[in-house]
């Protein structure tokens, strides 16, 4: 496994396993155990995924020492604000059956995320959180938070894949020493990613799948990836991306696929903001 070193010295696996859209507790527990058996040690969950308890059970059942894991969760919109955020993180610790979390992110840049971040900074200083950061923060809100916080976010998890490479945002994060992390590294198959001619051509050269090439491209750009699948064979495939290296020519060809636009939604779109904030008013 390759690692990135966060701005506070904490080491984070560059490849992890995400459990988004696996709300069924039995299936999620099975998937996390399968991922652990394959070799994954970084697990990414969130309060809004409603599967923290299943992740916690899998970690306990694995029999692997806690310090070998890198566990991430995220504070949801309805838990924003200092008091609610602090209580919700304590609840996440209980659900995950952990004494500390390796990384906690603000899930969305809505509601009182300043209060949320203050609570996270406090828990970070107490040692309950080894690193803190944000998710879905575009450059404007990201810079604003950085400028008025004591602890620079260690990570910003944003939609990042070959069709939306976040090159400008990535440069801004580098400037402030924040690690970029990808959600949706396969764009959930949008834009026919799995049959893309450029990805297939490069994959054929190395005997790799389009998915493996898509992950390798991000990894070589220094992006942390957390692909999600419920299929163990796919977990193994996604894990086996460290035995080949893309050439400068390969990287240039894939860089040309960048549209600079989201394959899902934009936080600059009023309808999207209304949808997320209305959903975020509902308690978990």
Automatic annotation (TrEMBL):
Keywords: NADP, Oxidoreductase. SUPFAM superfamilies: NAD(P)-linked oxidoreductase (SSF51430). Residues 17-257 form the NADP-dependent oxidoreductase domain. It holds the Pfam family Aldo_ket_red. Gene3D superfamilies: NADP-dependent oxidoreductase domain. GO terms for molecular function: oxidoreductase activity. It comes from the Bacteria. It is an enzyme of class 1 (oxidoreductase). Its EC number is 1.-.-.-. The lineage of its organism: Bacteria, Bacillati, Bacillota, Bacilli, Bacillales. This is Oxidoreductase/MSMEI_2347. Belongs to the aldo/keto reductase family.
């Amino acid at each position: 496994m390759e690692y990135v070193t966060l701005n506070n010295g904490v080491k984070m696996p560059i490849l992890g396993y995400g459990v988004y859209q696996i709300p069924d507790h039995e299936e999620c527990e099975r998937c996390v155990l399968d991922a652990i058996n394959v070799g994954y040690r970084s697990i990414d969950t969130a309060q809004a995924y409603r599967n923290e308890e299943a992740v916690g059970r899998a970690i306990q059942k694995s029999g692997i020492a806690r310090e070998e894991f890198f566990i991430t969760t995220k504070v949801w919109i309805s838990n924003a604000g200092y008091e609610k955020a602090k209580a919700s993180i304590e609840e996440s610790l209980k659900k995950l059956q952990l004494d500390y979390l390796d990384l906690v992110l603000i899930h969305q840049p809505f509601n009182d995320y300043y209060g949320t971040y203050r609570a996270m900074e406090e828990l970070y200083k107490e040692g309950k959180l080894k690193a803190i950061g944000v998710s879905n923060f575009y450059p404007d809100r990201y810079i604003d938070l950085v400028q008025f916080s004591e602890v620079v976010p260690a990570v910003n998890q944003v939609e990042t894949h070959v069709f939306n490479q976040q090159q400008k945002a990535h440069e801004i994060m580098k400037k402030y020493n924040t690690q970029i992390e990808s959600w949706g590294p396969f764009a959930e198959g949008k834009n026919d990613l799995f049959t893309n001619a450029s990805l297939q051509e490069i994959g054929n050269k190395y005997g790799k799948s389009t998915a493996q090439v898509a992950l390798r491209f991000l990894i070589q750009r220094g992006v942390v990836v957390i692909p999600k699948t419920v299929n163990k064979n796919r977990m193994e495939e996604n894990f086996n991306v460290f035995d080949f290296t893309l050439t400068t020519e390969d990287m240039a060809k894939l860089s040309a696929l960048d549209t600079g636009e989201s394959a899902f939604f934009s936080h600059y779109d009023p309808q999207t903001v209304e949808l997320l904030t209305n959903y975020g008013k509902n308690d978990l």
